[in-house]
Amino acid sequence: MPSLFSEIQNDILNPSSNITDILRKCSVLAYKINNDTFIKWTELELDGYDGDDAIPDYRIVGTVIRGDFSNRAGANHSALQIDKHLLPDFLQDSFGSGKVYYPVSYIESLLSYSADDDPVRDIPMSALPLFNRLYQGFFCTRAYEILPRMACYSVIDSIKNKTLRFLLEIEGKIENIEDIKLSKQDEKIVTQTFNNHIYGNANVANASENFNQNLQVQSHDLIDKLLSELLEIKKQGKDSQIIDDIIPHIESMKSVKDQTGVMTKLVEIMTIAGGSASVLSVITPYVSKLKELFI
Length: 295
Hints:
The protein is an alpha+beta fold.
């Protein structure tokens, strides 16, 4: 009888296999080897993530917000762009961040979506009045987030690839892992190997994790405040092109977690902002604060 390791590996290599079934087998294996980190991950992937759960990087994808607009004369415009930063705070994380919270079964179902367009998710109607000033004379009748179908493929592929590499490595490190009671050292090896392949942070201690999470929260708050100030300047019709050019660079700082990466991004941002004294005056205080966080 093949081992559970072999079954899961064969399923992953079989293009017709269902990702939900693969993860159910992973859940059985996780309980069998009694690894809490592996167990928790399989449960989150199968049941979906909540707002308080840390979302793995492979579940953060590029989404866009679009809206349909009308005016009193009956003219209509469809699928006009809406800046994610205009979403109210209570929707920013669930709609504006690109975080895919859905269970894997739902993500996989989107791959069989029959329409020609990418799947969309409607933004609550209570937020629509916030977008009425975007296009002069037009009011928003519908707003929605578009999840590119290719992003669904990417999430599923990442889960398969990361799981396969983890299983192959751990099977090579601990002989007969399914049939033995793991020692404390073996348990540590399993957890480190799992984190390395799934989250990419094998050697992060709990204290360090908490520190990095707090650091990330602080930096994200600063970045969001900076973006809000720049958008206010843009609303006044000032330096719109420079602000449009600089916003993607500022947003990308949220994914940077080391000092070197932060400094590189700050140089890029200051270079672009150099063409506008008003933009520079807004950015400079934030640059100093961001540098202090990562030094």
